[in-house]
Amino acid sequence: MKSILQTLRSFVTLRWITGKNAVIAVPALFLTIAFLIPFLIVLRISLSDMDTAGSPFGGLLSYVDGIVVLKVKIANYLFIAADELYLLTYLSSIKYAAITTAICLVIGYPFAYFMARAKPSIRPVLMMLVMLPFWTSFLLRVYAWKGILANQGLLNDLLLSLGLISAPLHMMNTSFSLIVGMVYAYLPFMILPLYANLVKMDMRYLEAAADLGATPLQAFWRITVPLSKSGIIAGAMLVFIPSVGEYVIPELLGGPETLMIGRVLWDEYFTNNDWAMASSVTVLVILLILVPMAIFKKYKTDQDAGERT
Predict the structure, then answer these.
(1) pTM for the model
(2) Rounded to an integer, what distance in angstroms lies between the CA atom of residue 93 and that of residue 252?
């Protein structure tokens, strides 16, 4: 009886709310409200009939003659698995996201390396240059590329004036314009985690490699790149994940052959008005995104375990 009273007293005085628990509870509460609950709602709609999607349980649960009946509709998922269009759309989204990630890494790594090796007095200026595009509306920046890549755009006018081409190049509404727009939009998300990783690297490793006879290129590939692997993976995830579901850039810069899953979702929701099918596609996109996140989590866990040992 005494132990029960002590337990009730500790619960009433909220002794279980420690600083560590409070710090964990805040992001957990945010993720529950901002991600888990909306995801469960979308999942419910994807498993419901269109005419019952607006009911509290979406027609999943019904009470008949004292029996609770669970009715789950998986026809949308079977249709997606059998329809070649959805498969090609998923593969196309992954392809363009992977190409964007690779190009951002090739461009962003030298820039982040230069920022990390620059004088501390000019690093804030370089950081501001990376963040400067975010001061302008994302939509305006994408529209600016329409003016640059159009047949009568700035780039074609420049090439014609220099005599490098005799006729305007067709660059808009192609895979080229799509990739250019996505690389431009997501390049800062690659640079920032790489810079944060490289700037903390212990330079004594490079000095030791030089003393042992390693050339600068050998030291870069054998020391700098392996030590910056966490930044590479983090930057790749920050670019790849939003690129898969991108809608604005494919809609404004891509053509009919650059079909991506974001445009399919828009058509299902607002053109076909089929919320159940659109929700099914959304659930599969989320599951597709969770795969690289799980890989990154496993890598971080293995890396932390290796550092402790």
Answers:
(1) 0.80
(2) 16
Which carries the bigger pLDDT value, residue 283 or residue 70?
283
- Choice among 27-41, 53-67, 167-181, 185-199 with the minimum mean pLDDT: 53-67
User: Is residue 12 pLDDT above 50, yes or no?
Assistant: no
Report the percentage of the chain scoring pLDDT > 70. 83
82 and 161 Cβ atoms separated by less than 8 Å? no
Comparing C-alpha atoms, which of 77, 95, 82, 81 is closest to residue 250?
95
Counting beta carbons within 10 angstroms of the beta carbon of residue 305, is it exposed (0 to 12), middle (13 to 18) or buried (19 or more)?
exposed
The tokens for 181 are 């727009």
Place of tokens 């402790």: 308
Higher pLDDT, 57 or 152: 152
State the Rg of the chain over Cα: 26
Q: What is the 3-state secondary structure (H, E, C) of 59-98?
A: CCEEEECCEEEECCCCHHHHHHHHCHHHHHHHHHHHHHHH
- Spatial contact of 108 and 191, defined as CB atoms under 8 Å apart: yes
Distances (CA, A) of 4 to 8, 94, 126, 285: 6, 56, 61, 48
Q: Please name the residues in contact with 191: beta carbons below 8 A apart, sequence gap of 6 or more.
A: 108, 111, 112, 115, 130, 235
Q: Is the four-CA dihedral 104, 105, 110, 114 of positive or negative sign?
A: positive
The closest alpha carbon to 224, from 200, 254, 246, belongs to 200
Residues 119-169: tens digit of each pLDDT: 888 988 998 988 888 888 888 888 899 889 888 888 888 888 888 888 888
